[in-house]
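Q&A FORM
Asked by: J.P.
Topic: structure of LuxR family transcriptional regulator

PROVIDED:
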Amino acid sequence: GRASGASAIGRAGGADVETASEKEEPEKRPHSPGEFRDRFSKQMAMVRDHYGLSARETEVAELIARGNSVARIAEILVVSENTIRTHSKRIYTKLDIHKRQELIELVESFDPEGR
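REPLIED BY: S.T.
REPLY: Here is the structure written out as tokens.
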């Protein structure tokens, strides 16, 4: 009786580990507001606030800056590639930039520690 109970606990422990690793996977996706996983995400939120980007534009901008292709972003966000291109144009217009590298440099120019 006891041995099977211990092995059931062991299995539950294993399931918890799997659940923890599954929880890590969505962290590669953009965060919900207020949940920052790293410095770049904090900087992205500062860009959003400074330039008045929508939540979706911020999400797309971060995915662009992190090196994702239009096709990959469309896949991640479950929208068409044309929708991503439209978001990209609006983002670049609002930020007055023309290239991905300019987006990265702009985001990195914001200091999340306020220094």
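FOLLOW-UP: The helical segments are 2-24, 39-51, 55-65, 70-77, 81-95, 100-108.
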